[in-house]
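Hi all, long-time lurker, first post. I run a small reading group and we've been trying to get comfortable going from sequence to structure in the token notation. Rather than ask abstract questions, I figured I'd post a concrete chain and ask someone more experienced to write out its structure so we can walk through it together at our next meeting. Sequence below, copied exactly:
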Amino acid sequence: MKLIRNAQINDDYNQLFDILYDEKIRDISPAKPSFDYKNVDRIIDIEGKVLVPGCIDAHVHFNDPGFTNHDDFYLGTKSAAYGGITTVIDMPCTSIPAVTNIPNLQQKLSVIESKALIDFALWGGIRQNDFPIKFHKIEELWNKGIVGFKLYTISGMESYKAVSYQEIEEMFRLFDGTKLLFAFHAEDSTIIENLEKSFTKEDLYKIETYVKSRPILSEVKAVTEITKRIKNNKVHFVHISSKKTGEIILSQIKDGKDISWETCPHYLQFTADDFTHLRGKLKTAPPVKFQEDKKFLRSSLIKQKIDFITTDHAGSDFETEKRMSDFSQVYNGIPGTQFMIPYLFTEFYNTGKMSLSDLIKVTSENAAKRYGFFPQKGSLGIGTDADFTIIDTKKPFIVDETELQCKGKYSPFHGMLFSASISKTIVRGEIVFDVNKGILVRKGFGQWIRRNEE
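-- Answer (accepted) --
Happy to help. Here is the structure in token form:
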């Protein structure tokens, strides 16, 4: 049995709490000058630091197995632990084989389970070559405990081809009224491909052409086409980057459709103007947009209209895949999971823009609820997993991309001053990361978390 003393867990700065736990939370009570807990093996006094339910990054690409030149599950989860993340949800597309059936799922698990440092869940996927869909095959994968199915409306991956709007409509009809969740990378392939063909080879080399070739209209078109086909389905939109798209999603939610959405720190912080100096360090798909889009996304987050924040973590080798002068060949992805929580607490909590309770929702609680982990994850409830992210909101640091623990050693946040830092990351009662000691658990400590049935 262990005890954390003097934790700030809510917005009352004058009230600190003691938390008694083993693998699970056993008691939470107001902190007292003295205490009479018996059989406590370890006492950790965090002296008023912020303690939140273990943070979740629900959108990562750790590329294992198959693309470990970009990242692997050990280093990906190590980077996440350094960033205060206790659970990640890994995407199905950037691994070989893609997680589109049970044998592929089992093969992936056989590789990554021995590497994980923190808990993890998995997305399943549906590709163009999975059509016509066999209901029982999809249902079998769902019943194994994946959180949902990822689809692309545009894709450059040969092993994970994009689906058409007609195929999406067929899928929605087939799974009408079921509990299955479908997530979309929503950019219109026709708009983007036609624009790319309209540019000269010399134009495609240029940074500014990339944003022009993946315009706001492509995101708007894809989201519009998908939402108008929704029947009684559960849908999630990943990494939304623009105001117009966000407004469409919110209007559809208001009309009663079961839709959730996310954005990422880079869309909250940067605009297309930043490509001039950040170049490949900022290149993602979709690209960051413009000032009004950034302003809208930040406002939507503050007003709790965005369900949660993720990173879309997808690193690569900077020297060989991000530095080239031909911007069209620069890899579309950036590492992110190590800096998300310090960024959010710096930019939104320490500045007073968001309360602690609101930040808990977008960093943990909402994702846990949407993906079927709540209250096991995402809450400080008696009997739930003892997953804690402990944040020192008074310890600033300058972001140094060379200190990233994943394979990709680059970040658009490099050189920025963050006013909050991670003190400890605790998973199921064990300190996985300590700021003074580093990683304290063995490879394979992290467990596969299956979705709970509703």
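A couple of things your group might point at:
Residues 60 and 312 are 5 Å apart (CA to CA).
The two ends are 31 Å apart (CA to CA).
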